[in-house]
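Example S7 (structure tokens).
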């Protein structure tokens, strides 16, 4: 399919081709991202005005829109400039006034001469006990009364686009809406009682009451489904494409896993075991794995990843694990090395810091296959990093990893299996939208014995109290993170805040007890600050949000977050997740600067009430909306125009399985339904999918 199907041409022409739309209106439309009649079609009304004809004003609640047949009475032109021009009118039972500001007699006398019969429609208000309709929306002879829609859809507008323009342009578009072959599974269509697309789009623009504007109304639900289905079809095509690339089959024999499991001071949770099994099965299959491992902070993703890496090493291959920051990469190395040693596995670290001879030696060892597992930052994917036999690439803690980046990563690893790990619990609907092309393993269980984290919300005014408590806690051998606020988008401001806090705490708690770590520090200093905290040499670690992701110091049991009210929910949840990892009772103090605004108060309350990452992320989604939650641009998450991710999660799941099912029986979209689905992809501007079909 080389180009857009002809049947869609009328919808993709310029808006100027619509009746009554000139270059100026077209220009104004672009402010609303409306460039073609198609775009108008998908701008659905958000409200509706009842303009059904009544016999009289009597019985109407004012103010309200009324449509009524009247006899025009006496004209009373304005007495002074800017005054009101009034026209007395009578309906079947009562009388009222039409009011015009700047009304010109000549015009009005021609339009509505005394004695004429007219149908008028507009908002009626009581003014000094007198009913009046100011600037009627409609004022037409009886023969034209049918021009007034019984229910008038109300659209979003922009500068230079009036309700009338919008209405007329949409009407003109509706006359050219083609009838399209059905792309929805007939069973789904029947089950939901949906109408065909053509009818649904007409109904959506012809609401006959507020009920029709509800997302659950059949026409809207169907159109929302179309949107979700098109998106899921795109993801399913990407997934199919990836699966076509032959993968490597790596079958483990347990010879490395067994000693590691035996050496662990704990047993894997059943969620971990299940994820390990799913990953092992994927590794063994000879198609490429493309899997997401989702697990809340502290759910033990690292062990799962490591078991996967051991499988490929057992099979004679190599693995790589990429972390977003140097601190994390180092921490993985330190956590995994003792385990690796138990099994005789060679683990090495590669970051941007490796230079010169040392780096060359590492690369050579990697190429020879002498390094089994490489851990590092994005440096592990530099051009000259070559593996002997790379079979598994793991990306840790990537919050913002879109479909495109995943495909790039898979390309670098040639046939290597890909596992993406994320600690950001995201609501199911978002997960499906963002990761619909992947298979998903979920760690929905925390390791046993974790104690709940006591979370308290405290005003900064009580800083002295907090510090004095902290002194006692430290004396008992506890450790504390102290996170300083992201005052502005500027690193410099962050730094001053962190450095000042560091000085103050050091002055109170003593030299050598307090460490400092922030993003701008030289890597060496960062490492030693982390190491000192990890080993218990320092008791307090003052930090900017560099510690947000992944840092693991089980003995740390106190988390203080300053100006918590300006952090996002997900971020606070991640930060708090740094404590509560050991056996000790943990505390999280969320300090705010009064007065608290509504949003900030609500966020802190949610955190105080629950530790469940999924509950927190659902709340976040409700408070912020989907687009905002995962930076849309980076995530590849589309902005849906009709579908409501917050409320239509169920439809998203159906769309995913339907899209996958369609491709399973018709991978090339050649069947009648497949061809119809191609038209949908064009209609929904799914360029990426269209490219995938044309190369596939
Ligand atoms: P995350 O999912 O946030 O990456 P980690 O992998 O860092 O979590 O694990 C958090 C902590 O839990 C680590 O200290 C780890 O050793 C420990 N842990 C992992 N799995 C278990 C388990 N099954 N039982 C007890 N502790 C575990
Ligand atoms: Mg982790």
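Recovered sequence:
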């Amino acid at each position: 399919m080389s180009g857009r199907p002809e049947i869609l041409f009328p919808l993709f022409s310029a808006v100027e081709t619509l009746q009554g739309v000139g270059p100026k209106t077209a220009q104004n439309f672009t402010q609303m991202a409306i460039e073609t009649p198609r775009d108008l079609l998908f701008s659905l009304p958000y409200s509706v005005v009842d303009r059904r004809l009544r016999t009289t004003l009597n019985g109407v609640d004012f103010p309200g829109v009324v449509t009524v047949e009247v006899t025009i009475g006496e004209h009373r032109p304005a007495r002074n400039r800017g005054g009101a021009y009034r026209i007395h009118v009578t309906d079947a039972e009562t009388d009222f006034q039409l009011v015009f500001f700047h009304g010109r007699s000549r015009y009005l006398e021609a339009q509505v001469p005394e004695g004429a019969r007219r149908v008028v429609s507009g908002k009626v208000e009581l003014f000094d006990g007198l009913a009046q309709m100011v600037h009627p929306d409609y004022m037409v002879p009886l023969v034209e009364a049918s021009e007034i829609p019984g229910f008038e859809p109300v659209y979003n507008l922009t500068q230079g686009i009036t309700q009338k323009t919008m209405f007329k342009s949409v009407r003109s578009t509706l006359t050219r809406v083609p009838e399209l072959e059905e792309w929805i599974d007939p069973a789904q269509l029947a089950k939901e009682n949906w109408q065909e697309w053509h009818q649904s789009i007409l109904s959506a623009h012809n609401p006959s009451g507020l009920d029709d504007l509800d997302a659950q109304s059949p026409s809207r639900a169907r159109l929302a489904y179309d949107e979700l289905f098109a998106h899921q079809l795109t993801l399913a095509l990407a997934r199919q494409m990836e699966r076509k690339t032959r993968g490597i089959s790596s079958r483990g024999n347990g010879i490395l896993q067994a000693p590691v499991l035996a050496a662990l001071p704990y047993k894997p949770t059943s969620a971990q075991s299940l994820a390990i099994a799913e990953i092992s099965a994927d590794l063994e299959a000879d198609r490429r794995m493309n899997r997401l491992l989702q697990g809340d902070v502290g759910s033990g993703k690292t062990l799962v990843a490591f078991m996967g890496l051991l499988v490929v090493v057992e099979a004679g291959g190599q693995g790589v694990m990429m972390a977003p920051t140097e601190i994390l990469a180092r921490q993985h190395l330190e956590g995994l090395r003792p385990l690796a040693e138990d099994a005789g596995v060679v683990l090495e670290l590669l970051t941007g810091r490796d230079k010169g001879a040392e780096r060359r030696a590492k690369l050579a060892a990697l190429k020879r296959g002498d390094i089994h597992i490489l851990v590092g930052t994005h440096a592990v994917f530099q051009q000259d990093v070559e593996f002997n036999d790379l079979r598994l690439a793991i990306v840790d803690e990537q919050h913002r990893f879109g479909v495109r980046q995943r495909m790039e990563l898979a390309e670098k690893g040639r046939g290597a299996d890909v596992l993406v790990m994320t600690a950001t619990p995201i609501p199911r609907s978002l997960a499906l939208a963002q990761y619909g092309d992947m298979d998903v393993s979920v760690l929905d269980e925390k390791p046993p014995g974790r104690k709940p984290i006591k979370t308290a919300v405290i005003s900064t005014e009580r800083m002295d109290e907090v510090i004095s408590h902290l002194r006692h806690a430290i004396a008992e051998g506890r450790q504390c993170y102290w996170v300083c606020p992201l005052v502005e988008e500027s690193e410099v401001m962050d730094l001053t805040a962190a450095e000042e806090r560091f000085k103050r705490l050091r002055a109170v708690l003593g030299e050598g007890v307090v460490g400092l770590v922030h993003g701008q520090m030289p890597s060496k200093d960062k490492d030693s600050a982390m190491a000192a905290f990890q080993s218990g040499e320092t008791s307090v670690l003052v930090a900017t949000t560099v510690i947000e992701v992944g840092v693991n110091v089980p003995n740390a049991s106190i988390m203080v977050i300053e100006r918590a009210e300006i952090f996002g929910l997900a971020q606070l949840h991640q930060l708090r997740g740094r404590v509560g990892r050991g056996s000790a009772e943990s505390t999280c103090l969320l300090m705010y600067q009064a007065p608290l605004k509504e949003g900030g108060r609500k966020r802190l309350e949610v955190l105080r009430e629950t530790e469940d990452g999924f509950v927190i992320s659902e709340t976040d989604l409700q408070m912020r909306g989907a687009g905002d939650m995962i930076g849309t641009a980076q995530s590849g998450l589309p902005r849906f125009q009709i579908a409501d991710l917050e409320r239509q999660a169920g439809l998203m799941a159906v769309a995913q399985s339907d899209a996958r099912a369609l491709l399973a029986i018709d991978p090339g979209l050649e069947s009648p339904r497949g061809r119809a689905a191609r038209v949908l992809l064009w209609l929904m501007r799914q360029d990426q999918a269209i490219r995938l079909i044309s190369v596939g």
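Notes on this example. Residues 630-636 have pLDDT under 50 and may be disordered.
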